[in-house]
């Protein structure tokens, strides 16, 4: 691994004839633990001057956590960060800024009510002591914008009227004014259309030519391939490796991001399908279009697609959280219009949401309360409390939820055990259809294997399962059929025996070809 | 408390104790319901004004010749109406609890003055003060009512499915909703109960005071919130107990009474209450921080144990395939 890193950085730097070998930013064995999950595990990487360095990885792989630490918005548990070879202690966003690190996030932190110039010089106003010198400010803003190819923007204009790309340019100009050495762009292209992406890339080129470094986080691998000099792959809080972009293909990037080490743990796909429990015909909501699904007892359907492709929204429609606009949803033979999730539950549907901490667990309450939360809706008999304890004990035992006791606060459990607790919450009410949104996200390999065994067992007992996952090998290993989503559109169903490439082709479609710029 | 005892020989007398627990009873009655509201991550600032409106209402009806018990009942219904109004604003119109109940605070105060601009003393029936002043086996009736109310809400929180859902909503509203809990209905009921309890508190208080006064309960919401927070209910929701609120209410009232007896000016009592609230919130914050740190340590220990198990199981999984 270490060799790989060194080998790959060599040619990359040489290619761009950057002779300076001293990294501008170095991250050394940085770790960060959040309750229930190890977000960063001994991460090492280096960013060199004048390079475009892309960080890729699945959601939850650790990129955002590392950015937060570098931005001074979170602290690391251990490890060292060096800027220009000196150890820095990034205790606040202000310190990070002073050290020459600037950050541009998808949710832009521009002040809409202020002018372009005011935004660019925010916190570093040009003044005569008290009053702002408007002329000088606007000239300075104009100069900065010109350097990145946005000289046409009128500095006195309100920011609220600008396009997303222009707002990003304002942020970049602000970073330039602070003489930022490393500019981080966290999924900034996700909200841009094709032309704007091209615009942003020309900004990146001009920054690079000034010798500044850009750390670019993106899920669009074609873009990465196009713009990056170096790629660092994150997986499960670790750095898989750093590579020269020329040395890795897009499919290799996917392989490195997703990994294959758990492939062997999948159960055999010899399940027998039973009756049709749910049928969606040309189903659409505000967020998804043309969903065609046939959910049968004993069958596991996987839902694939990129982040933001409408997978979660698909489950939300099936669970009655988003209203159906067009099409038909038939549940056990009857056409239904679900008005809320309680109606869906009444028909035997359960949902394990993606955001475990935000939507799944009630962290400060006990394991028992968490497991029997839904069960208590239907069981208000005299001795409900005793039965609740009994039920929770049974699930802790049968699902092997590792907790010192059922009275323990849920947030103290590891991610995998919390997830089993949420699944148990549904099992307690015996649903016929279980919707799982990223059920193995952020849990360790062993717990993942257990989750697969559990899903298989439930299907064999006659439950219908719909699983959303970003982990493609996992979906292929688990599901009998793969439904693919792209930008809200239902792209079709592939057999569970299909290849990763087939799924990816449907999921990515024609990427707005950035090659046009080149 | 030891300080007050040493500084005033009247502090630890039977009379004073009866007196203090009597005034604490209103705080306990209302505070118990507000505890539910705050566990569900809500807030009810309107209780002081609603207290006044309900009290004046009861006195107005009774002085007008209505049956005493019926006028008490209608006063409680008025409290329920205010509670339902708060609940509808928060649940139906998604107004933040602080603003919704702040609005109700003013509306209810205005209504109290509209019913009667000054205290109603004349024409009240003879048995008006029966609830407020008589005793059963030496225990003042207001105290008995407070005990019953506190036990009821304690039972509701700790022993019923409804209570579970209150905790779950305060702990993570979205998780509760996605688990099928009818969040809106639970929240509405919580505000409704707060209104009913305030109506009952008003009956007890006005009966004890012997008048229907639109000026009562100014700053009462403050005492209640201090009692609830001193009692350990988390500002972040999801945690808290009625027993804590009862203790908190006693602390608040004893503090006021003690300062009074040792001759501290009433104005300083406001200062003392303010300090008590801020101190309680800071302590709550520190305790939570410490707990969060302790939690992180505990998880690490738990997971070291887990990895051992996980590894063993992983190999068995491999072997079976």
List keywords for this structure.
A: 518 residues; alpha/beta; Rossmann fold; six-stranded mixed β-sheet; 19 helices; 20 strands; 35% helix; globular; disordered N terminus; B: 321 residues; mainly alpha; ABC transporter involved in vitamin B12 uptake, BtuC; 2 domains; two-stranded antiparallel ribbon; disordered C terminus
Overview of the structural elements:
- Chain A has 518 residues and is α/β, with parallel strands linked by helices.
- Chain A folds into 4 domains: 2-100 and 181-194 and 201-258, P-loop containing nucleotide triphosphate hydrolases (Rossmann fold, 3-Layer(aba) Sandwich); 111-179, no CATH class; 263-348 and 431-508, 3-Layer(aba) Sandwich (Rossmann fold); 365-429, no CATH class.
- Chain A is built from 19 helices and 20 strands.
- In chain A, helix 6 (164-177) runs parallel beside helix 7 (194-209).
- The relative contact order of chain A is 0.11.
- Chain B has helices spanning 2-7, 14-39, 47-63, 68-92, 97-115, 130-133, 141-159, 161-171, 173-178, 183-209, 220-230, 242-261, 266-320, and strands at 135-136, 139-140.
- Chain B has 2 domains: 2-264, ABC transporter involved in vitamin B12 uptake, BtuC, CATH 1.10.3470; 268-321.
- Chain B is built from 13 helices and 2 strands; from the N terminus they run ααααααββααααααα.
- In chain B, helix 2 runs parallel beside helix 7 and helix 4 (68-92) packs antiparallel against helix 5.
- Chain B is mostly helical.
- In chain B, strand 1 and strand 2 (139-140) form a beta hairpin.
- Chain B has a two-stranded antiparallel ribbon with strand order 1-2.
- The chains are: A alpha/beta (518), B mainly alpha (321).
């Amino acid at each position: 691994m270490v060799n790989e890193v060194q080998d790959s950085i060599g040619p990359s730097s040489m290619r761009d004839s950057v002779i300076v070998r001293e990294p501008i930013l170095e991250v050394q064995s940085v770790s960060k633990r959040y309750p229930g999950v190890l977000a960063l595990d001994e991460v090492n990487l280096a960013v060199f001057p004048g390079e475009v360095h892309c960080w890729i990885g699945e959601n939850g792989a650790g990129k955002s956590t590392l950015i937060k630490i570098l931005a001074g918005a979170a602290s690391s548990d251990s490890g060292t960060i060096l800027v220009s070879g000196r150890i820095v202690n990034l205790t606040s966003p202000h310190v990070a800024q002073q050290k020459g690190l600037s950050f541009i996030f998808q949710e832009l932190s521009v002040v809409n009510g202020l002018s372009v110039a005011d935004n660019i010089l925010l916190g570093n106003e040009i003044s005569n002591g008290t009053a702002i010198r408007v002329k000088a400010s606007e000239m300075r803003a104009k100069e900065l914008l010109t350097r990145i190819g946005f000289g046409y923007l009128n500095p006195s204009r309100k920011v609220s009227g600008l396009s997303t790309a222009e707002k990003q340019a304002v942020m970049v100009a602000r970073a330039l004014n602070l003489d930022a050495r490393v500019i981080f762009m966290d999924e900034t292209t996700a909200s841009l259309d094709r032309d704007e992406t091209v615009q942003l890339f020309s900004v990146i080129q001009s920054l690079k030519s000034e010798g500044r470094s850009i750390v670019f986080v993106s899920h669009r691998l074609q873009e990465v391939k196009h713009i990056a000099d170096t790629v660092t792959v994150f997986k499960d809080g670790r750095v898989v490796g750093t590579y020269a972009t020329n040395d890795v293909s897009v499919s290799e990037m996917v392989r490195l991001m997703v990994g294959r080490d758990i492939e062997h743990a999948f159960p055999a796909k010899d399940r027998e399908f039973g009756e049709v429990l749910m049928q969606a015909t040309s189903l659409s909501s505000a967020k998804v279009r043309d969903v065609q699904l046939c959910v049968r007892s004993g069958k596991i359907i996987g839902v694939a697609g990129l982040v933001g492709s409408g997978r979660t929204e698909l489950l939300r429609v099936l669970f009655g959280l988003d209203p159906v606009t067009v099409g038909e949803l038939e549940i056990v033979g009857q056409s239904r219009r679900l008005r809320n999730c309680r109606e869906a539950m009444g028909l035997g549907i359960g949902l394990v949401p993606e955001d475990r901490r935000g939507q799944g667990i009630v962290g400060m309450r006990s394991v028992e309360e968490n497991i029997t939360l839904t069960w208590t809706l239907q069981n208000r008999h005299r001795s409900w409390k005793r039965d609740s304890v009994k039920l929770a004990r049974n699930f802790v035992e049968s699902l092997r939820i590792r907790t010192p006791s059922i009275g323990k606060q849920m947030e103290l459990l590891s991610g995998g055990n919390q997830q089993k607790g949420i699944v148990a919450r549904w099992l307690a009410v015996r649903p016929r259809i279980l919707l799982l949104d990223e059920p193995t996200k952020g849990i360790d390999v062993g717990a993942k294997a257990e989750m697969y065994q559990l899903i298989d067992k439930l299907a064999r007992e006659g439950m219908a399962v719909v699983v959303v996952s970003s982990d493609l090998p996992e979906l292929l290993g688990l599901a009998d059929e793969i439904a693919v989503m792209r930008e809200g559109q239902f792209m079709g169903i592939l057999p569970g025996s299909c290849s990763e490439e087939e799924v990816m082709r449907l999921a990515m479609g024609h990427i707005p070809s950035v090659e046009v710029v080149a | 408390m030891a300080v007050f005892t040493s500084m005033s020989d009247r502090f630890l007398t039977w009379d004073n104790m009866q007196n203090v627990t009597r005034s604490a009873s209103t705080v306990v009655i209302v505070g118990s319901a507000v505890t539910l509201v705050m566990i569900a991550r809500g807030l009810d600032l309107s209780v002081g004004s609603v207290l006044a409106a309900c009290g004046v209402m009861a006195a107005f009806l009774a002085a007008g010749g209505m049956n005493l018990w019926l006028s008490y009942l209608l006063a409680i219904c008025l409290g329920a109406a205010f509670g339902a109004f708060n609940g509808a604003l928060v649940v139906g119109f998604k107004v933040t609890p602080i603003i919704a109940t702040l609005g109700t605070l003013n509306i209810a105060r205005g209504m109290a003055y509209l019913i009667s601009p000054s205290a109603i003393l004349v024409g009240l029936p003879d048995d008006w003060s029966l609830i407020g002043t008589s005793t059963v086996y030496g225990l003042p009736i207001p105290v008995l009512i407070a005990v019953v109310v506190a036990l009821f809400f304690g039972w509701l929180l700790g022993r019923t499915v409804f209570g579970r859902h209150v905790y779950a909503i305060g702990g993570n509203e979205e998780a509760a909703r996605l688990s099928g809990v009818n969040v809106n209905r639970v929240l509405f009921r919580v505000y409704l109960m707060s209104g009913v309890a305030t109506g009952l508190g008003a009956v007890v208080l006005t009966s004890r005071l012997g008048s229907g006064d639109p000026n009562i309960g100014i700053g009462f919401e403050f005492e209640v919130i201090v009692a609830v927070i001193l009692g350990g209910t988390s500002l972040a929701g999801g945690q808290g107990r009625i027993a804590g609120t009862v203790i908190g209410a006693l602390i608040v009232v004893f503090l006021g009474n003690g300062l009074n007896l040792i001759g501290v000016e009433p104005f300083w009592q406001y200062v003392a209450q303010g300090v008590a609230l801020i101190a309680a919130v800071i302590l709550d914050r520190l305790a939570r921080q410490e707990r969060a740190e302790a939690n992180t340590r505990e998880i690490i220990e738990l997971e070291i144990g887990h990895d051992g198990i996980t590894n063993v199981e992983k190999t068995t999984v491999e072997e079976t395939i």
